[in-house]
Structure formats: structure tokens, C-alpha cells
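Take a look at the protein record below with the fold in mind.
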Amino acid sequence: MSAIVRFSVFARMLHWLMAAMILTMLFIGVFMAATEGTAYNTLLAFHRPTGLIILALAIIRLGNRFFVPPPPLPASLPRIQRMAALGSHILLYGLMIAMPLVGWGMLSAGAYPIVFWGSIHLPPILPHNPALFALLRHAHTWFGLTFFAVIVIHLGAALLHALILRDGVFPAMASWRTGQRDED
């Protein structure tokens, strides 16, 4: 049996850390839409800095992917699935970067402070504009819904590779597996 070529340890750590953070953020966003007052402010105080951390990690992750290419997909994978994998990863990376930027822009356009943590505030990236705020608020919601759908598809593909195809794609990212060689 040949060794499975895996993503680097750094790439796997970033993947799973960001997966947990992004899922948490999506659910917090849903709860934020359904709450108000103190609960809303508490969720928002966590949502803003976590979104900015996800933005920074996404940029680091994209740079890592550029300099440390992922393992190749199995030769047996049909071309349409290769294209779907590439497209879904482009969409995931795009949303990991766009969502926090749209949120930051939305707050800027609404003239809200961009609180990173405590007394650390970030500068606005857009001018105050109520119409732009409304547009970006809707965009942030639709991007969030799209993000959730793409994650469900991504998870479905991961389960397909893990449970049915068993073609080495899943263990390439599953960091808890042992006995396989890492290509770092």
C-alpha cells in the first residue's frame, strides 16, 4: 500500500482551525439576526474580531497554498469532479476573504466603530454612506447563506471521498490519521 500524500501540517492546522471558526461565525450570524439588546451586543463583540482574524488567516492560508501546493487529486477522479473541486475551493477562499471585508466595509459605511478588541479600533475602509451600508448588509447576509451552502457541499464531498470512494482525498486533510507520510 502506497503512502498517502497529505497536506502540510501547517495547512491542516489552518484548515481545521478555520473550519471551526467559520462554522462558529455562521451560527453566531444566525443568532445575531434573531436577537437584540445585550445578547446581540455580546455576539457582535465576538463576531467582529473573529471575522478579522478569519480574514488574516485566509490570507495566510492562501499564501501557504501558493507556496506549498496541495497534494494532487487522484488520477481516477473524473474531470468534472476536478473542476468542481477547483471551483468550490476558489469560492471558499473568495468567501473567506470577501465576508470579513464586506462586514468591515458595511460597518465603515454605517459609521460604526470597527472594534478589533477592547480599545483597538481599525480605520474605516469606506466612507459613511447609509445606502451603501444597506447594500453591504444585504450582501453580507447573502454571502453568509452562500458560504453555508458551499460548506455543506464541501462536507458532502469530503464524506463521499471518506466513506464511499476511499481514494485518499479525505485522509490528505484529516490530521488525526496516523501512519501516513506527510509531504512537507
